[in-house]
Amino acid sequence: MKRTVIPAVEPTSLPVHGTDEVFPVRRVYCVGRNYAEHAREMGHDPDREPPFFFSKPTSSVTGSGRTLPFPTQTQNLHHEAELVVAIGEMGSDISAEEAEGLIWGYAAGNDLTRRDLQAEAKAMRRPWDMAKGFDQAAIVGAVHPKSATGVLTRGRIEAHVDGTLRQGADLADMIWPVNDVLVYLSRLVTLMPGDLVMTGTPEGVGAIELGQSCSVTIEGLSPAVVTYA
Ligand code: MN
Predict the structure, then answer these.
(1) From the CA of 98, how far away is ligand 1's center (Å)?
(2) E strand or H helix at 101, and its extent?
(3) Ligand 1 centroid vs 31 CA: distance in angstroms?
């Protein structure tokens, strides 16, 4: 093993529910517009165009329950409640039948978005990275093994800000179910153990202000909570 010239980075990891173990995070991929009503609220027609993807830096993944400084350079920080799929097996150009076998577990997540910077990027046909990939931009709850939850295809998904319901839908409302998302993504990149896939958000996205707390809950999973102070 060669000596590193600067300290090597500790891999980002998430707690595994009900154990002392952790899930090591490799990469973070996100699906755009995967619920019809959210596509409409963002000004798009939710016909079944193939899903599209973006990514967040692994370092942006932050566990649930922390109090964080408010993100810089935004006046419009939005919550996006999402089911996060944790990948446990390698897969490239997989079939829908193979997709389930790649899933290690699931978590609740918040795909935090600087909506003002995203709108500017869209208008100027620039990348979304600084709208989606800032420090601590992915709040993710404990990972629940698929061996305990079974394959998740339905279940209530909600976001509350200071206790007020903002987003409420069912995982079954996804335009592209998880298996299809993994099929498309595996054509673009080889899925690897440790990858997280954020599967898109339902309608009702909106702002979180300094001093507020946002909780994303999914039936059967641990919540993903963040507080800004
Ligand atoms: Mn999202």
Answers:
(1) 25
(2) helix 96-102
(3) 6
